[in-house]
């Protein structure tokens, strides 16, 4: 009987420590997403469009991004200062 009470107390303490140590991960937030020229304009083959995406993470985690398109190509930033 005494051993089962000790096991219950230990299990309860472990569970409480586990819950306290597991912080909730909040999703990133896109603060701003714009294209230049504006996305409501028609872009023809060979035109250049600048994509600006600003996002933050409430937890302070580092963010990575990936853009995809059905056609055309993407070039990396022209200047490393474009990556903030």
> What would you report as the Rg, rounded to the nearest angstrom?
24 Å
Distance between the termini: 61 Å
| Total number of helices | 1
Shape: rod-shaped
How many β-strand runs? 2
Main beta sheet, described?
Answer: 2 strands, antiparallel
Which helices and strands appear, and what pairs or packs with what?
Layout: H1 2-21, E1 29-36, E2 50-56
Antiparallel strand pairs: 1-2
Account of the 3D structure:
This protein is an alpha+beta fold. It has one helix and two strands. A two-stranded antiparallel ribbon has the order 1-2.
Condensed summary:
The chain is 24% helix and 18% strand.
Observed structural traits:
single chain, 84 residues, 2 strands, 24% helix
